[in-house]
Input
Amino acid sequence: MLKQGKRIKDHSKYTRTLKREVARRYLNGEFSYRIGAEEYNLPNKDTVKEFVRWYKKELTSEEAHLSAPRPKVGPTNESDSAANSLIDQAKEIARLKEQLRLAELKAEAWRTLVDNAGDHVGIDLVKKFGPKPSNK
Output
């Protein structure tokens, strides 16, 4: 007697680069699910929804593995408190935001580069995080 199991989706039908591009553009508000599907000649809007879901999951997975505990910075002496004025803090926040923006662009470029290299050699170069499937 054959046991019918859950249907497994073929996630390799579309390249990671395409999925990332479509999801990123949707999340930036450049188009709706339906328009995205039409623009990229995808079967329907559900495909774009799946790309967005996949992209969010990928980002969450990367953030969880890249985050590390940060040392707590406590108050130092009184001479240092003068340097921590609101203007200095605002400048520091602006500098850090720009640094973060550039880091995100670099990370996106690296992900795209690795995906393209993997497509070129025909293997997945990205390490998959999470539990390994059981061999039962």
